[in-house]
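User: Structure please.
Assistant: Input sequence and predicted structure:
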Amino acid sequence: MDNPKALLLVEDEFIIATSEKISLEKYGYKTVLATSGEEAIDIVNKTNTLDLILMDIDLGKGMDGTETASIILENHAIPLVFLSSHLEPEIVKKTEGITSYGYVVKNSGITALDASIKMAFKLFKAQDDTARTLVALRESEKRYTQSIAAVNDGIWDWNVTSGNAYFSPLYYSLLGYKSGDFPASYASWRLLVHPDDITRVERDLQNSINNGGSFSIDLRMRRKNNEWIWVSTRGNTIEKDTVENAIRMVGTLSDITARKHAENELLESETRYRRLFEAARDGILILDAETGMIVDVNPFLVEMLGYSKELFIEKAIWEIGFLKDVASNKDTFQKLQEKGYVRYENMPLETTNGAILNVEFVSNVYLVNDRKVIQCNIRDITDRKAADYELEKTREEKNRLLSELQHRVKNSFTLISSMIEIAAEKSNTSTENKISFGDLASRINAVSELYSMLYSNGIFTDLWLDDYCIRIAEALTGLSKNVSLVTNLEHFLVLVDKAGPIGLILTELITNAIKYAFPNDRDGIITISLGKSGESVFLEVKDNGIGLPDSIDISKGDSIGFSLVKALTDQIKGRFIMESNTEGTSCVIEFAQS
């Protein structure tokens, strides 16, 4: 032998073991000796080169051969042949329960022993091959079962001739039944098919039977709860008769209800889109985003421009003359592809009769079944442009009238102020009356500045309060050469309804400061502060003069000016605070901004 088989000979009689070892080696076997069960177990555990074990039953003291064999075979797949002088039926039967590779009587001769060893090898190989086949078969069945479970399909096997069938447990489950709830037959299956589908389904089945081929059919079947579901059944012929007709078919059953609902929803969506496309009062072009070819055009665009539908379809957008401003060449179209969005606010299009329409052109790129398309919406804005033109003319006329009104109001205020100044100069009344004329002129100026700012800004609801205060203050402090103005003003808006009273209040406070704080042309400073704290606004007019004269008592309303300040403060729901001493006077008003 090229590769001699390695045997383990377990024999407690050394002389017998040596003799048998010599005989076996003459027949080409490589033999290892063990004189006890314990030694045999130790050898087997330490080596994996043994091919077969020859086991004596009587092994002297310790465990016998049958016990040793059981322990070895429990952990090792190896052929084992009993070699014994026992012929008692009970002992032979005992060994058969341990191994089936053979039982050889001692002194049968080396020829018989060699034959038994070779037979044991054949049996072991046959059993090993069978075991491997069974393992492979189980793995295949496992994979098949897992595959079927993964796709969640029922299995059927139909004997066309007899009408009998096999339905898998999952087949029953898909229809809401337990296995065996109804007979596995063509007749039972037919009762579950929707009446509107049975004729079509049986026709397709008969065609497959006649040509011995396969089929795939979508149909409706009734579940146990009487609910109709959509299923797909696929079958293939595996046996045919002599004329090639199918006599046995196998296949699968799948629940496709969700898919059918999705398909119906998609169909409804496409139908709605088509209706909108056809009925839209905007022109619509659909382009292939890759090629620029026009694939669809809606009736409104055809009607609007007067061109036939054939002029559009299967032409590149840059080939359509009246769209040359949108895509005059392929380079422009490529920019459209890259941007995915293009908009033209006012694009002229020429109709077939030569009329020019002003249109708004908007294009978007989106996906349809994983393919990019471009939708171009073209809206006729000719009437809107005409309306915009008329609106602009009206706006310009309004602005002209407002400008004229501003000019006349400003002139009117100036005229009134001038008449007051003339009356004051020519009047023979007291100096106090002349001062009153001057105060009146200042008040008129405050109102005049308010309207001047409103008209110049074109806003009539609110104005910048700091700008308004500066214009009033600069006009008033200019009346006295010895008084300087300091401002500390925050920039914010107030409503016009409050700006008017505030302007008059500021006029009165500055006028009073000029009149009373700096007698005999005394130099002085008037500081105006404007700020916010939360929703509250404060305006302070402060001077560094001599303070108010004792003759003025605000609480008694002796001064017309202060009476006016208090009344105007009440009008804007504010609060007036005044402090005065020999170092100057501070007047503060507080009010809500809104």
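DSSP finds 16 helices and 22 strands in the chain.
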